[in-house]
Amino acid sequence: MDDARAGLMTVGDQGVSPLRLPAFRRFLLAHLISAAGSAMAPVALAFAVIGQGGGAGSLGIVLTANTVPTVVFLLVGGVLADRMSRSRILFLGNLGAGAAQGAVAVLVATGAATTASISVCACVSGVSSAFTAPAAQGVASRLVPPGQLQQANALVRVPRNAVKVIGPVIGGFVVALAGPAWALGWDALTFVVAALLLSALRLPGAVSPGGSGGLVADLRQGWAGFKSRVWLWSYTVAGTAVVAAWLAGYQLLGPIVAARSYAGAGSWGLVQGAFSAGLLAGTFVCLLWKPQRLVLVSVVTSSGLFLPLAAMGLGLPLLWVLGAAAVAGAGTDVAIVAWSTAMQQQVPDQELGRLNAFNSLGEQIAIPVGYLVVAATSAYWSGGHILLVCSAVILAAGVANACVRDVHRIRRA
What is the CATH number of the domain that holds 166? Predict the structure, then answer.
């Protein structure tokens, strides 16, 4: 009787669509609205820095100021995600990010923006991300049945990726025609609206009170769980190199190379749009394909990030760069959905915030170093040469991680 009941529960989980759940729809809508602004933000921020006379060095400082607070506060955010209401954390985090982007928009619109002032606002936004990222990873497992986790993870990314397809293109032309302040102001508004939607989100399930030893004890328990899972820490170590090389090459050098070798903001918006189109295609792949070896699939597909960096580094025509960006985007989204599903299935809910925080910390800790190294070497090496080095780092890290035996062992629950 117990076996039959378990079978019925599994069938029931598989038959329930996440879209039929009101709380999940609210969470989905908040993601869509936030993405409608965030899709334009990278183009606007890059050309806001360039517009006030900055180059690779100034943009590197701004991006570093955004990343360092995230790294510093990420573990605290992971503990709070396991202790407090995740919907409240998401509300406050989005509100803080909206305030930071609004301040940047005002500074740029009034002509008062400097590298220092933009960096301060980027720092506030980075602190917000440190608290919202671990909390967001644990929402789907509270809202949908276990059998629908991959579908839910993919559905959350459908509207975000759909907006990202046209958002960067629109953002590029908005920046070119009206200036970056308008795109940054729109981003701020969408953060505030998303925060209001998330404030009314009620997540089922009890919140873990944490250990009696407080923050330090919770972190020790989380670290013990993290290092006991070889597939988790090996993926994190490889991700340290992959994420740093990708963001330093794509986010920092990408706009600079586009301004010098292609057609400026418009062409860079097209590249980001192609990457987002790939993300959307990857999302639909995840709705249809349920691979068994989730971690291995994530390792292999994320390695495709080397393609657009190599294309730009070699100075290939824009059409080739767009194709490479689309392929990389598709692989990235498959990797994200597969990894999120693996984490939600393999890690208990009461540890999910902390282990996600350790994973994110490991992947992001080298990003400031990558930004600063690229900014410094740009004075001696051409942007093309640096992009080729970044692409080689990504490919080498992926191959090394695929050789870890435990990565092959983790299968879909």
Answer: 1.20.1250.20
